Amino acid sequence: MLDHIIFGIARFIRGTVDTVSNIVETNTNIISTILSTTDNNASIVNDPNIVETLDDNWVVVSLGDESSFVTKS
Q: What is the pLDDT of residue 36?
């Protein structure tokens, strides 16, 4: 009987550790994605890839992921 209680407690602890590990891994992935996005945005601001110049100093700027936006230069 005591061995069942001990094994039950061990399984509970292992499950808790697995859950915490998954939460930490998910948070790490979220932070990594945020940092990557921040780096991409910084490179666009610091070194924009101007695709086309429009009238009145408006330009089309590439975002590097097949999307673009129009901004005033």
A: 66
